[in-house]
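Hi V.,

Quick status before I head out on leave. The structure for the redesign project is tokenized and pasted below; the design run finished overnight.
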């Protein structure tokens, strides 16, 4: 038996080796020459345009002057290797040990916490490959990494990497990043500053000190701890560095809708490989709608914010197919560059009942089917209705319109939490979606842009509507590097489910919790309020525009009795009336696509 198993193990190993070898020969035929690894042109610019091609913002000096490894303080290199590739000087481009460690860590934690790519693989990707996520790309990346290791020394590879990699806020390369964040050349970086820059490599937008200083500091501490664990600094050195911290200089002043244009620039590496060319990005933004969104949000915060204990808000508006027409990520960009529309993840409260409703309708329930609205207990958990008011037997439609928690929980339990979670993920909520009994009440954290995209599926008559902001990317030679294709979106919801959902969500604005969001034309949506009034939401749509509004505080301090049906609904209605002052929008119930659609105010 042992000999039999040994024989088949050898056969399988030989077969696997043959398959890998054949694949290597096949994909190595069209690998790019390594000469391009040296080519870094200075100071490309990124020009962001609106939907009509008018300039919104210019981002410049994305690349700094190339630096040599011997010009950098040793702690810069140690920080990068400690958090990204501890075995850099001991592997040959691909690190099976590091990959195995990452897989084990991810399995134990139940989510992706570590990647297995070496610095050489990352260099191969940023220097030669597109950002697509595919087995083919990963295989070519591995082959390129092996070639790079064969042609260059470790120090050369690390130099190429540090001069090319993206550090967020439009800065490519260690020199540009050092000057952008700290106003100093890379050769003068302190230990703490080096750790902060190394921490950006995993997620340059989310861990960015311009966007979220607290998150950036937490990530920097992780890097310092990793340096201690790898033995390159001592525990006292790490403690001293954490105490000193650093001053991050604000980003350069640019005119235009900065929350939106920052979002676009951060998305750029997902569309093209950013090299030495200047880039021109045409976006979906409508300046007129952007102006109305900014005015509506600012007016509400100025008038009601102090009395209601509200310091922050955000608004996202898209067309039914997901094209972002307006995006406001906070009260004051100069005070805080953290984008609360795209980066903040908060509990959506009862706006999440959209997924309970859709899962129930897909399961076979109808808006007129009745459930008991009464106190309920599940495993000792006792959700309560707003102000502890219960109505007895009510229809599903009335329960959603009035946002009755007990009915939402009963409905979720009836159709199954897994179906509710799957519906949320299908419509664009990036998991993990919680599957405990409280799922119906919106305890899963999500972003405003994700929730707006989910409601857009209904405005798009059940078809996919992932929010997007980039239409086309060209270089200075006017060559098209990316162009959004007009592909028929996939159908995510049956027509009957969509029609029933329209009926229910229209009732929310006519006789439910969002009467303040009512418009002269048909409007649909759902309110949301989280525990202790920490978050207030309204996401809604008409036949031509979808918008989500959120209010809250960055420190999660409770507001003063602010519900989704109050301030968010009022701002939503004010924005929609300004966007379509003539009204005249057809209802969605008919699902008719005949006749020209009225244009938004310009």
């Amino acid at each position: 038996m042992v000999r039999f198993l040994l024989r088949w193990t050898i056969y399988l190993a030989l077969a696997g080796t043959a398959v890998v070898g054949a694949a290597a020969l096949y994909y190595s035929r069209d690998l790019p020459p390594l000469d391009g690894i040296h080519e870094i042109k200075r100071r490309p610019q990124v020009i962001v345009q609106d939907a009509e091609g008018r300039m919104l913002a210019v981002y410049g000096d994305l690349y700094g002057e190339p630096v040599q490894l011997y010009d950098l303080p040793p702690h810069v290199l140690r920080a990068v290797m400690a958090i990204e590739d501890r075995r850099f000087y001991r592997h040959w481009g691909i690190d099976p040990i590091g990959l195995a460690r990452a897989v084990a860590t991810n399995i134990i934690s139940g989510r992706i916490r570590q990647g297995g790519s070496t610095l050489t693989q990352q260099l191969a990707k940023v220097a030669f490959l597109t950002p697509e996520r595919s087995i083919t790309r990963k295989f070519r990346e591995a082959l390129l990494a092996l070639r790079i290791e064969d042609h260059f020394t470790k120090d050369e590879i690390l130099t190429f990497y540090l001069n090319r990699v993206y550090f967020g806020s439009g800065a490519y390369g260690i020199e540009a990043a050092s000057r952008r964040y700290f106003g100093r050349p890379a050769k003068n970086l302190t230990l703490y500053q080096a750790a902060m820059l190394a921490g950006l490599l995993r997620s340059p937008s989310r861990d960015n000190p311009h966007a979220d200083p607290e998150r950036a500091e937490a990530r920097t501490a992780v890097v310092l701890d990793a340096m201690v664990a790898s033995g390159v600094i001592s525990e006292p050195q790490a403690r001293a560095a954490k105490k000193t911290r650093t001053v991050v200089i604000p980003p350069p002043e640019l005119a235009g809708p900065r929350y939106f244009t920052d979002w676009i620039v951060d998305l750029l590496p997902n569309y093209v490989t950013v090299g030495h060319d200047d880039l021109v990005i045409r976006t979906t933004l409508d300046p007129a709608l952007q102006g109305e969104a900014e005015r509506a949000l600012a007016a509400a915060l100025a008038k009601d914010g102090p009395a209601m204990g509200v310091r922050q808000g955000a608004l996202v508006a898209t067309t039914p197919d997901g094209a972002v027409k307006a995006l406001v990520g906070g009260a004051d960009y100069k005070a805080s560059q953290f984008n609360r529309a795209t980066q903040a993840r908060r509990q959506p409260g009862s706006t999440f009942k959209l997924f309970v409703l859709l899962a129930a309708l897909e399961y076979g329930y109808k808006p007129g089917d009745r459930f008991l609205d009464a106190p309920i207990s599940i495993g000792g958990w006792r959700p309560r209705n707003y102000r502890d008011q219960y109505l007895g037997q009510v229809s599903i439609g009335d329960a959603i319109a009035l946002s009755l928690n007990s009915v939402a929980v009963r409905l979720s339990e009836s159709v199954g939490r897994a179906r509710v979670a799957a519906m949320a993920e299908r419509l664009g909520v990036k998991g993990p979606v919680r599957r405990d009994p409280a799922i119906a009440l919106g305890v899963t954290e999500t972003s405003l842009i994700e929730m707006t995209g989910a409601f857009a599926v209904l405005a798009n008559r059940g078809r996919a509507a992932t929010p997007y902001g980039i239409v086309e990317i060209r270089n200075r030679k006017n060559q098209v590097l990316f162009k959004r294709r007009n592909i028929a979106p996939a159908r995510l919801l049956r027509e009957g489910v969509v029609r029933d959902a329209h009926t229910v969500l229209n009732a929310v604005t006519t006789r439910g919790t969002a009467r303040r969001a009512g418009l002269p034309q048909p409007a649909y949506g759902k309110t949301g309020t989280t525990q202790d009034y920490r978050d207030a939401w309204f996401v809604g749509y008409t036949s031509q525009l979808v918008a989500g509004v959120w209010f809250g505080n960055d420190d999660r301090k409770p507001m003063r009795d602010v519900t989704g049906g109050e301030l968010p609904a009022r701002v939503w209605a004010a924005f929609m009336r300004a966007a379509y002052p003539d009204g005249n929008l057809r209802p969605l119930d008919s699902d008719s696509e005949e006749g020209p659609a009225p244009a938004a105010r310009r």
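Above is the designed sequence. The chain is about 40% helix and 10% strand.

G. will cover questions while I'm gone.

Best,
W.
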